[in-house]
Amino acid sequence: MQNIQGAIDHLKNHQTYPATKENLIQECNKLSDFSEEDKKEFMDNLPEGNYTSAEEVMEALGWKEQEGMPKSQGTQSMA
């Protein structure tokens, strides 16, 4: 996802909770400032569930706010 920080901002400041995956996807589809690729990645990677906070959504997606990238991309070593 190219605009993780924008997605985190939206989840924290504009999304209402509790929210299901379906609720989050419906909201995602309304956003014009995210690419279709970012929307698809969000929809494909978000597990089914009921979320009570932005932090729960971020954890489910493996996002860390301070890094602005998924956990799997933030721990690569340089050889």
What does this structure look like?
By secondary structure, this protein is mainly alpha-helical. Helices cover 48% and strands 10% of the residues. It is built from four helices and four strands; from the N terminus they run αβααβαββ. The strands form two sheets. Strands 1-2 form a two-stranded antiparallel ribbon. A two-stranded antiparallel sheet has the order 3-4. The relative contact order is 0.20.
Please tally the helical runs, counting DSSP H or I stretches of 4 or more residues.
4
Span of the ends, CA to CA: 25 Å
Classify the helix fraction into a percent range. Answer: 40-55%
Number of domains: 1
Contiguous uncertain segments of 5+ residues: 68-79
Structural class: mainly alpha
Strands side by side in the biggest sheet: 1-2
The total of beta strands comes to 4
Give helix and strand order, one letter per element, not per position.
Answer: HEHHEHEE
Task: Kindly estimate the percentage of residues that lie in beta strands according to DSSP.
Answer: 5-15%
Radius of gyration from CA coordinates: 12 Å
Shape: globular
How many strands, which pairing sense, and closed or not: the largest β-sheet? Answer: 2 strands, antiparallel
Overall residue-averaged pLDDT value: 85
